[in-house]
Design a protein that fits this description.
This protein is about 25% helix and about 20% strand. It is of the alpha/beta class and about 300 residues long. The longest helix has 19 residues.
Length: about 300
């Protein structure tokens, strides 16, 4: 039986600076990039469907900011020079990393997480905004595709800050979330040993385990020969179907190729991958059979 939905309240923060020399048009409109709200809407729908209705994200506050976030070294872009840099595709500021402490303070993220007003924050901006795809804060926060947030331990619970780019699409948003899932599930199964590490088994692909692929990971489908090789038409033996019946893993295999996951489409591959994550009640070896519980709520991770 599929477990009850897990609701997560989101603070959506959109950095969309206006460009004075272009009649005040915002960066996404000036360059014809994607509409941030439409991206979020489609992402929320895709994740709900791929999780069998378990992942229920609700944007409870939305803030659109006409400014560039401050970098970790104190630098802040101006709109017209940034637009020129984008056209030249060079000389962007380094180091690129944003000042997360400044963002947390500006938008009262820690206070809102502590009070229960929100569960996590989603940052959305232009290329070279300096966001990690995902990062974690809170007590005993751990690696979440990036180092834990500094100075964010005074919340009573862990929280994740996602970083999205409206120049890209929903598929890239799903990939960022997938790397969050990979980090969290690696932590869940840490120290279990090769025989009991079901997460490592789930992520096997033919390049590392010839003839023994399962579902693969975000970058490698079961038959991928290299990073992002989601369109590989080569057939390999895979036990990917076995994960639909978790925790009953029989080891049954069949021939699969990219036709299974969209023929190279990033969004379709990632949706296929998410649908294979265990998503039923009960526990195995002391760990939940519903991996979404850990991915959506890192406080459940030991």
């Amino acid at each position: 039986m599929i477990p009850s939905p897990i609701h997560r309240k989101i603070s959506l923060i959109i950095h969309a600076p206006s460009v004075p020399s272009k009649s005040g048009r915002t960066l996404p409109k000036l360059f014809g990039w994607n509409d941030p709200d439409r991206l979020v809407e489609r992402f929320v729908t895709d994740m709900r469907e791929a999780s069998y209705g378990i992942a229920r994200f609700e944007v409870v506050e939305r803030m659109e900011v006409d400014e560039f976030p401050i970098k970790a070294d104190g630098f802040r872009y101006d709109a017209d020079p940034f637009a020129q840099l984008w056209r030249r595709q060079r000389e962007f500021h380094q180091p690129d990393l944003v000042d997360y402490g400044s963002l947390l303070r500006q938008f009262d993220i820690i206070e809102k997480v502590t009070s229960g007003e929100i569960d996590e924050a989603w940052l959305m901006a232009f290329p070279y905004a300096g966001y990690y795809e995902s990062t974690m804060g809170g007590p005993n926060a751990f690696w979440c595709n990036s180092p834990p947030l500094p100075d964010a331990e005074r919340t009573r619970r862990r929280f994740v800050v996602m970083g999205f780019n409206y120049e890209r699409g929903v598929g890239e948003m799903m990939e960022a979330f997938g790397h969050r899932a990979e980090s969290i599930m690696t932590r869940v199964y840490a120290g279990r040993g090769p025989e009991n590490d079901l997460w490592q088994r789930f992520t096997r692909y033919d390049g590392q385990h010839p003839g023994g692929s399962e579902v693969g990971n975000m970058h490698f489908a079961p038959n991928s020969a290299r990073d992002y090789d989601w369109g590989n038409r080569r057939f390999v033996e895979s036990a990917c179907d076995d994960w639909y019946d978790f925790p009953e893993l029989t080891g049954a295999r069949r021939q699969v190729s990219s036709e299974e996951w969209g023929g190279g489409d990033i969004r379709l591959h990632h949706a296929w991958w998410f649908r294979h994550l265990p998503h039923v009640g009960g526990s195995t070896g002391g760990l939940l059979n519903n991996w979404w519980a850990y991915i959506l709520d890192p406080d459940r991770v030991e």
